[in-house]
Amino acid sequence: MGIRRLEGIFLWYLLCIFVISASAVDIKHLNIWPMPKSVSHGYGNLHLSNEFELRTDGSKFADASSILKDAFKRSIDVVRSTHVIEFNTSKIDPSLVLKGIRVVVSSPSDELQHGTDESYKLHVPARGSPLYAHIEAKTVYGALHGLETFSQVCHYNISSRGIQVHQVPWAIADQPRFSYRGLMLDTSRHYLPIPVIKKVIDSMTYAKLNVLHWHIVDTQSFPLELPSYPKLWNGAYSIPERYTFADGEEIVSYAKRRGINVLAEIDVPGHAESWGVGYPALWPSKDCKQPLDVSNEFTFKLIDGILSDFSKIFKYKFVHLGGDEVNTSCWETTPHVQKWLHKNRMNGSKAYEYFVLRAQKIALSHGYDIINWEETFNNFGKKLNPKTVVHNWLGSGVAQNVVKAGLRCIVSNQDSWYLDHLDALWQGFYSNEPLTNITDPKQQALVLGGEVCAWAEHIDASDIEQTIWPRAAAAAERLWTPYGKLAKDPEKVKSRLSYFRCLLNQRGVAAAPVDGLGREAPIEPASCYLQ
Ligand SMILES: *[C@@H]1O[C@H](CO)[C@@H](O)[C@H](O)[C@H]1NC(C)=O
Ligand SMILES: *[C@@H]1O[C@H](CO)[C@@H](O)[C@H](O)[C@H]1NC(C)=O
Ligand SMILES: *[C@@H]1O[C@H](CO)[C@@H](O)[C@H](O)[C@H]1NC(C)=O
Ligand SMILES: *[C@@H]1O[C@H](CO)[C@@H](O)[C@H](O)[C@H]1NC(C)=O
Ligand SMILES: *[C@@H]1O[C@H](CO)[C@@H](O)[C@H](O)[C@H]1NC(C)=O
């Protein structure tokens, strides 16, 4: 191939880049992520006042703890932080200056729980004097989503050097398709410092995720302080790699102020070796350390203590009790446990069932509904408490069996929604449909939603953000946007997802390029909007 020809190809390539990148950032595109339930917009432009203000007159919500005020400030701060603002809006026609946003919330309560109404309406008029945007919501948490959407229609204008609201007038009516839209963090395989967890929580709000599933402890380490059993956190990797009980409370409160529930997990009996560092009696023996000793009453007394402590800070309706990957060989080969099994006429699998059901009863006694990983359903589904939510992970096709049995389900099938699977691409995250093969509306209602999981064998503070984003965003749209508005072909939303990825970068989130494997470095020099 001659040099000429190569040059020609190169020029053509540059032209393509220019055309595609121009269209990705084209203001005519609707670049909101996740796509709202219903949107209409025009093609006008407004300037955001330098004194842009929050007004809440007419709202029944008193905002005693500043949830709304703080969210407003955060939304405007992320919009303003992208560039130095040089434009002075006091010098132009006031009918083109948006003075503020008026937020009307009809519920006085700031309670956040599973099923809390998250709907909102956002209206930005094209002209007016005085000119205000409007958000209407049942709860403050719906209003928070409205503020997030508003922040996504604000743009820095490089010629005016100020913030503008593009595509006015806007009329958006929005609400989530599923009530459970989760992200799982694992702080046992690697400890995550609290500021890192908080930054992840902030980034979740950009994609309207609403549950942080905190897989706190596992085989490798036990970082959380629990007052009832103060030696449990002896199983932490080191002294600095620990969370005090007050830290736990702080994470819950930080998340709640952003509309995010925290689902705490203890994964029993199979993923619990680290518990025995502080309390060796929990191990069947020194040589065989998990599952937790089913024959020892102390095991259940301790679970009761943990859940009693949990109930003081983790106020979400659900607690996760794990129950996956239980290999009962330690029970069958350790003499004193073997003896207990024999006396109680149980084999290993029966004892596994006994353990899970007993742990469920303890959780119920503390007022929780239970979530268990799917093996519990696959092995003894009929015995599970009717309040159980089955958490799918092994493969697809499980949800349909769970809801047929009348139980609720959360979908996280590993082939599509495990973030630590770096070969799971964003297209698969986007296309994974929780209601596959579930047509009966009563059964559909039993699917609470889904969750993407960041198992942390190879994740710590150094790479967590790029492992989560942008692939979690692809799942977030699947869980938020009405089915009929989702693209059948994910390539159709690619430029909007790239836009959202660049928005995350602008907000200081280390979201990886959309192209390539999970958390991969950019492949070559190019615009953010093209990779
Ligand atoms: C904007 O212009 C007004 C009127 O000229 C002036 O009083 C004000 O200080 C200016 N604000 C900024 C931030 O420059
Ligand atoms: C930026 O502002 C200028 C002047 O107000 C306007 O003409 C232009 O259309 C704006 N650009 C975009 C991308 O909206
Ligand atoms: C269960 O654990 C035993 C002992 O560690 C091991 O030999 C066996 O292969 C494991 N079984 C399964 C199914 O993983
Ligand atoms: C364990 O016992 C149950 C009956 O309690 C039986 O159905 C099952 O087949 C047994 N499992 C094994 C592996 O022997
Ligand atoms: C859904 O049903 C179709 C047709 O019966 C089947 O081919 C497919 O494998 C099912 N999908 C899942 C995830 O079970």
TrEMBL record:
It catalyses: Hydrolysis of terminal non-reducing N-acetyl-D-hexosamine residues in N-acetyl-beta-D-hexosaminides. The active site is at E325 (proton donor). GO terms for molecular function: beta-N-acetylhexosaminidase activity. Coiled coil: none annotated. Residues 178-482 form the Glycoside hydrolase family 20 catalytic domain. Belongs to the glycosyl hydrolase 20 family. This is Beta-hexosaminidase. It comes from Salvia divinorum (Maria pastora). The gene is HEXO3.
